[in-house]
Amino acid sequence: MNTPFKLAFKRMPTPAFIIESSTGKLLSYNRNFEAFFEKFNATPATTWDTLCEDAATSANWQVLNETIRTGKIDRCESLIRVGDKLINMQLELQHLGESVLACVYETDHMDLSAAENTLLKFALTESSAGLWIWETDSDLVSCSKSIAILLGCSPEQTPRSTPEWHARVHPDDVKKLDTLVNEHVTHNQDYYEVEYRIRKDDLTYLWVKERGRTYTKNADGHIKKIIGFVVDISHQKALEEHLRNQATFDELTGLLTRGAALTHFKKQLGLAKRQYTPLTMAKIHLDANSRLLALPMEERNIAIQTSARYIYKKIREADVLARVEDDKLLLLLPNTSVRDAKTLLNHIINPTNDEQKLLKEGNSDSVDFCIGIATFPEDGESIEELALSANQAVEEGQAKQQKIVVN
C-alpha cells in the first residue's frame, strides 16, 4: 500500500478494512474500524473467517472474493464478531486486484424514521408514496408512516410480513406480485417494478406502482434486504380507463366503435368457421331518406342517439352492434340464418305504437331505417367482404326504397 493511499485509508471517516484477495487475511484496518472494536474492549480478527460469523472456513472467503471480482456483488450484510458480540453490518466491497477494500456500516438499528427526516420526510408525506424495507430471511416488513397514510390505517396496523401484505392486495393481483418478487429474489436481480391494487382500511382499493430495489445481500450473494416505494397511481389508472373507453365506445351512442367491433366480429367469424354455423351481418342506415341532414346538429345527434338505443334494446345478448359511420350501424348476428335475421330485423323496422312514439320524441322515425343483409360464407369469407356486401345491399335498398335487402 503506497503512502498517500495508506494515509487516506487511515483517516477515512467510514470504518474500513482491507483483505488480501488470495488468503482472506486482514492486511489493515483504519482508525474508525479499530475504534468501533475498542468500544467493546475487543480487537479486530486477523482473517475473514474469524471476523465473519457467516464464514465457516477460509474457503468461504474464496467464494466471496470471486463474486466481488466478477462484479456479482458489491454490497453485503454479515454478522461481524466484535468481542463476544455479533453485530449485523453492511459491507460495501471493492476489488483492488490483490486486495479488497471493505467499508463498514452498522445496520442492526436501522430505523425508517431516520429515512423520513427533513426533505425526504416532506416528500413522502406530501406525495402519495410510501417507503418500506423487507428482510427476506425473517420476512419482516417495515413500513413508513406514509404507507399508513396511504392505506388509511395507523402505523401499528401496516403490514409486517408478506402474508399480511398479500392480505391487502386484490385477489386478482396477488399471484402477479408474488411471482415477480420471488423471481427478483431467486435470480438476485437489482430492480423490479409492478402495478397492482391494494385495499385500504375503508375497504376500497387503490392502484399503486411498487418499485423495489435490492438493498443488501448476504456474504453468499443472496438478497437479504429489499427497499422500495409504493406510489398511488389511481388517478392515472382512471385516466387510462377513460381513454380506453373513449377508444372502445362511441361517445354519442355508447355503442362499440368500428375498431373495437372488428375484434369481436373476427372472433365470431372464427367460431362460425370452426363450428360450421351461420353468421349474418346487417348494415343499418338510420337516415335512408336524408331527413336528418336538414336538422340542426344537436337535434340530429339526439335522433341518432335515440335510434341506436332503440335498436340496441331490440337485439339479443349475443349480437354485436357498432356505430361505424355518423348515421350507420353494423350489426353482427352470430349463429343466425338469413330467415331468422329478417325476423329480428322486421321487429326493428316495425316498432310498436309506444316504441314509435318514443322514437319520434327523440327526433327519430323507423321509416328512415334501411337495412342491408350479408351472410357467411355466401357473401364473403372475411369481415371486410361481409361489410362491403352488406353496404351494397343498403345502397340498393335506399335506391329502390326497400326497408330490408338481402345481397
TrEMBL record:
PROSITE patterns: GGDEF (PS50887), PAC (PS50113)
InterPro entries according to UniProt: Biofilm_reg_signaling, GGDEF_dom, Nucleotide_cyclase, PAS, PAS-assoc_C, PAS-like_dom_sf, PAS_fold_3, Rev_trsase/Diguanyl_cyclase
Domain PAC: 192-245
Entry-linked SUPFAM superfamilies: Nucleotide cyclase, PYP-like sensor domain (PAS domain)
Species whose genome carries this gene: Marinomonas ushuaiensis DSM 15871
Start and end residues of each GGDEF domain: 277-407
Protein name, as recorded: Diguanylate cyclase
